Amino acid sequence: MCNSDQSDSSKQTLRERLQDFRNDFNLIENELGRLIVGQSGVIREVVIALIAGGHVLLEGVPGLGKTLLVRTLAEVIEGKFSRIQFTPDLMPADLTGTNIMNRSVDGNSYFEFQQGPVFCNLLLADEINRATPKTQAALLESMQEYSVTVGKTTHKLPELFFVLATQNPIEMEGTYPLPEAQLDRFFGKIIFPFPTSDELFQIINRTTTVTLPKVKTTIPTSRIIEMRQLAREITVADEVTRFAAELIMRTHPGLSNSNSVMKHPASEKLVDKYVRYGASPRGAQALMLGAKVRAILDTRFNVAKEDLIAIMPMVLRHRIILTFEGEAENITTDEIIATIIKDQ
Fold this sequence. Notes:
- By secondary structure, the protein is α/β, with parallel strands linked by helices.
- The protein has 2 domains: 10-233, 3-Layer(aba) Sandwich (Rossmann fold); 234-344, Magnesium chelatase subunit I, C-Terminal domain (Helicase, Ruva Protein, domain 3).
- 49% of the residues lie in helices and 15% in strands.
- The strands form 4 sheets. It has a 5-stranded parallel sheet. The chain has a two-stranded antiparallel ribbon with strand order 3-4. Strands 6-7 form a two-stranded antiparallel sheet.
- Helix 1 (2-35) crosses helix 2 (40-52) and helix 9 (238-249) crosses helix 11.
- The longest helix is centred in the first third of the chain and has 34 residues, at 2-35.
């Protein structure tokens, strides 16, 4: 009887923690929604990635509010915000910082590390595909290792370090596309859709008046770390984990010749014809972490298959590499993912 009471008490405590999680998540969403017109799907996916602990690629035409979204998110979570405009002449030291020579009061010279803009909580890497591969690699190393090495010294980045990198899908001349291995380091890729006529009407009214909307309520960055830890505590049944593994396997060509227990001719045919490489194990990890956050938002204590399916487009669209034939026929990775989902 005593053990049962303790179990009930523990479950009640977990229920309260999950409710606090949802309340804080909704607070972030609502504050962003006060400044960002529409884009509710984009806002939710960005916050899910933030809680899951991954970095995000934002793709959309200029002027849709990508910078405003990131800056507002930094205000809401009381984080330090930095913005870097990537250009072909940008050097790695411009991101990470460098050692500079100073002179002490007694006249002796010494080197001191001057931090670059990467030392922040939220970093907007604007038009990341405009920088040279060397500069891109410097940023992606910081994303992966959460540290910067200059000379023989390693400098730790803040515990909460979230990168949102933008890509312009229109003007591609003179750019340096991210290699597949570097794209894989991003938790998800989020497409910024163009606003509707009504949303454009609201944007004009909000941004051309004397008084602009401001953030009213904030939460500390330490709370985001707590929410990350809680999301990882959500349980997953072995059946659901195997389902996640099968979803990843089905993004790879040649599945029809494998030992997979799941046979879906429609998606297999499409993948075999148009996909060169499928998602990596890192994609499976992102899929599960995103699904755990979604399970909490759906007031559940465990991950369901529906959570994995809902997260798939965001975390897999940049991890599926098309063949030349697929690109020539304008096949999109979203179409591939949609076919896999439809086969369920």
